[in-house]
Design goal:
By secondary structure, the protein is α+β, with helices and mostly antiparallel strands. The protein contains six helices and 20 strands. A hairpin with a 7-residue loop joins strand 16 and strand 17.
């Protein structure tokens, strides 16, 4: 049975997977498939496109670009933007607050841009807060970040670049130019200069409550290390590697390459997760990408068929089906 401690261990281990192994143990796991793996939809996150079953529903994620967090709201109006700005203006107009910049709205075509900067305290110590809003095609993008006085010019350049190149994109539409996919949007970007970015997205299946798909990509500024070594190091650092090995049986672990797609070569780790009923698994693949190369980012895929054990006590699908799901998605991942 998967305990809360085991769940924490899995969440601690940044991982994702595919099919081919250096270390392999097989288990007789039934063949009945329920998820329609022949009926797929396109999706994109960061600089990668991939396919997932049409039955999968998005559950959101994180978009971080050049240290700015970006969130989106559909069916927004100009009043939505003005209300969001008014809330920040009221907050930073209170005692011990300081407004640094309150720029006029800029209209570029159908897009409206508003930038506001403020801080706690009356002096220049500490960090300053940045807020920006981009309204495009009834979608409001809220941008938040901070900067220190030392990096004021760099922060302004990054913010200007972001608001000028950010636009609405229907999540079902795949990009036709170089750039970065975010939730409900797109950032036009040629890849030069290097801009660190992290993007993740998750999916669930209403008919299969124990199943989740997680996709993450990052243009890293430093070497993240390999998937397997990083997972082991995380577990060893907390003194939990022995517990993990005794409760979670490895099904497949080692180097892995796509069978199709961009022929990404990385590592995978697939392990069984015991539940009170039918056991699930976590399958993870990761391609490490290149350091400080926006056009060759890291990509991490995870399929978890033992998600949320406090509410779901048995896996919704067989381990065979979970691995098929993982393999199908893995082999559709492509850079655009």
């Amino acid at each position: 049975m998967k305990t809360a401690a085991q769940t924490l261990l899995i969440l601690m281990c940044f991982s994702l997977s595919s099919c081919s192994s250096a270390e392999s143990t097989t288990k007789n796991m039934g063949d009945n498939s329920m998820i329609k793996l022949e009926n797929l939809q396109d999706w994109c996150t960061g600089r990668y496109t991939f396919k997932i079953p049409k039955e999968a529903s998005p559950i959101g994620g994180i978009d971080k670009y050049n240290s700015f967090i970006i969130k989106s709201e559909l069916n927004a109006t100009h009043d939505t933007l003005k209300n969001a700005y008014a809330e920040k203006l009221a907050k930073y107009s209170e005692k011990d607050m300081r407004i640094l910049a309150d720029e006029e709205e800029i209209k570029v075509g159908n897009k409206i841009i508003k930038i506001f900067k403020a801080k706690y305290g009356a002096d220049n110590r500490g960090t300053n807060d940045v807020f920006a809003w981009v309204l495009d095609n009834k979608s409001l993008f809220t941008i938040t970040g901070t900067y220190s006085l030392q990096y004021k010019d760099q922060s302004q350049e990054a913010l200007t670049n972001l608001v000028n190149n950010l636009s609405f994109r229907n999540n079902r539409n795949m990009p036709k130019q170089a750039g970065v996919c975010i939730n409900n949007g797109f950032i036009t970007n040629s890849g030069s200069p290097f801009r660190n970015s992290v993007h993740s997205f998750g999916f669930e299946f209403k008919q299969y409550p124990s199943v989740r798909i997680f996709f993450e990509t990052e243009a890293p500024s430093r070497d993240p290390g390999g998937l397997i070594d990083r997972m082991k190091n995380n577990l060893n650092r907390t003194g939990n590697y022995s517990l993990f090995k005794s409760h979670n049986k490895t099904i497949r672990k080692g180097k892995k390459s796509q069978l199709a797609g961009d022929q990404l070569k990385g590592e995978e780790w697939i392990f069984e997760v015991p539940l009170k009923g039918k056991s699930g698994l976590v399958a993870t693949f990761e391609y490490s990408g290149s350091i400080k190369n926006s056009l060759d980012p890291l990509v991490n895929l995870e399929v978890d068929s033992a998600f949320n054990p406090t509410q779901v006590q048995t896996s919704s699908i067989s381990q065979t089906e979970a691995i098929k799901l993982y393999d199908v998605i893995l082999n559709t991942i492509k850079k655009f």
